[in-house]
Amino acid sequence: MSSWSKDMKNVCQRLFFRFMEVVTNALFWLVYHGSGEKMPPIENLLLLDTASALAHKIRTKKVTSVEAVETFIARIKEVNPILNCVVDERFEAALQDARNVDKLIESGTKSAQELEKETPFLGVPFTTKDCLKVKGMSHTAGLYCRKNVKANENATAIELMTQAGAIPLAITNVSEVCMWWESHNTVYGRTNNPYNTNHIVGGSSGGEGCLLAAAGSPLGIGSDIGGSIRMPCFFNGIFGHKPSKGIVSNFGQYPVPSEEQDGFLGIGPMCRFAADLLPTMKIIAGKNVDKLRLDEKVDIRNIKFYYMEDDGGSAMVSMVHPDIKTAMRKVILHLDKAHGAKPQKINVKKMRNSGAIWFAKMKRKDGPTFAELLVDCKGSVNVYWELIKWLLYMSNHTLIGILTALVETWGFKHGCEHHQYLLDQCTQLYGEIQEILGKDGVLLYPTHPVPAPYHNQPLVKPFNFSYTGIFNVLGYPATHCPLGLASNGLPIGIQAIAGMNQDHLSLAVAVELEKAFGGWVPPSISV
């Protein structure tokens, strides 16, 4: 196919997608328009503390761990009937853990300084998603056939958090098999956005992002193979970090990634306040923490900033919303005026192929297929029969789960010429971005092209995840930074991407942007 023919095909695809997007946006507005169910206001000041501040108050006896845990339990009981973000809890066990913490502190056997050094999050409750193992808790990954599965041990990241003194409190909702960007499954149902319950929370860490935004938890641990930390953080207006490739152990994650996918999957912190990102990374990075230079002081003036306002025009991806572009430009202006930085606009053309590159890199040479994952690799789903069952309200699977298994059978095969072409594109793109970023560069880039869609709307714009997914397969660290609310009252923000193992740079940018633009905006507050 000639270059002219390819360009015409791309233009036609883009026009068709834009037309369909206008039509479907109108249809979804007719079904879902409105503000949805109102959130109960935040009335306890403890809910507004950073996790780090809460830990300080606990070890210095200004607040007891029991008081902190009880406060967040009460908040979860307030918001969960509306949001459906928590799917399992260990409230009584957490309270007992908190009593033990308070006894330790009261005993005086260790000073506050010793406690801070050895257990920096002592007595602080935290939550995680329903695909990371927490001993005795739900471990379904949104699969109906795993609805009774409980974890028999802690995932490595969770174990490291408990060793740092943090107390597991609850498990949050995910998408089916954790491979879609709306948190909905047939085990626990659908999770609603705290800013407008007619909208999605993202996925697969959507329940986690939702709970944190609603002030139901001070700190969360998520996982991200295509944007599963950053998209929920974007849709819910909080901070989240996908670490550099291979830093945080993925042990205890389900589905278990293939050897290659293990490098794309990143377990990282999700939180309302940027100040909690770095101390959490210090903990969950474990033995790899020294690779990240997290204690190195960062001067924003010494960072070389680059930015892209969109992916360059992918035909099947939504145009970047004007409010997001405006927010990006405000960031650029701030960096210039406040720090003398001169962010450079760049155009990396291969970013237009982000979605295709991600799919190519995710292809497994030897199973399991998505149809097998839907039944916990105990056989395989007959996708055509399952689709008929879904139409008759008889299926145990979501529509997107069935369609994903169906589309997988139609796509290009592992090792074919087109597959190899996309792998080569990924290698070239990695080199191009690495040359730009080096060891002192940060790329500012949209986390997602539009604010949180209505429920089910991702079905008609499935490739919008490509803004995050591309950085999984490239391996770079990426931090989502909230930048307030769009004109429709839903959160927006951008992501900061740094060079390999330069996580300290993107984390420092998050702290800077929170100071400049305010960060998390509480959905409702009355204190």
SSE inventory with pairings:
Blueprint: H1 3-32, H2 51-59, H3 65-83, E1 86-89, H4 91-107, H5 112-118, E2 125-129, H6 156-163, E3 167-172, E4 184-185, E5 189-190, H7 206-213, E6 220-224, H8 230-236, E7 239-242, E8 266-271, H9 277-284, E9 304-307, H10 322-339, E10 344-345, H11 354-362, H12 370-373, H13 383-391, H14 399-410, H15 417-437, E11 441-446, H16 466-474, E12 478-485, E13 491-498, H17 503-517
Helix pairs in contact: 3-4, 7-8, 11-15, 11-16, 13-14
Protein name: Amidase domain-containing protein
Active site: 129 (charge relay system), 204 (charge relay system), 228 (acyl-ester intermediate)
Domain Amidase: 67-505
Structure description:
The chain has an 11-stranded mixed β-sheet, sandwiched between helices. The protein is 40% helix and 12% strand. The chain is globular. The protein has 2 domains: 1-33; 46-286 and 298-365 and 414-517, Amidase signature (AS) domain (Amidase signature (AS) enzymes), CATH 3.90.1300.10. The model has no long low-confidence stretch (mean pLDDT 95). It has 17 helices and 13 strands. With 527 residues, the protein is of the alpha/beta class. The protein has helices at residues 3-32, 51-59, 65-83, 91-107, 112-118, 156-163, 206-213, 230-236, 277-284, 322-339, 354-362, 370-373, 383-391, 399-410, 417-437, 466-474, 503-517; strands at 86-89, 125-129, 167-172, 184-185, 189-190, 220-224, 239-242, 266-271, 304-307, 344-345, 441-446, 478-485, 491-498. Strand 9, helix 10 and strand 10 form a beta-alpha-beta unit. The active site is at residues 129, 204, 228. Residues 67-505 form the Amidase domain. InterPro entries: Amidase_CS, Amidase_dom, AS_sf, FAAH2. It comes from Diploptera punctata (Pacific beetle cockroach).
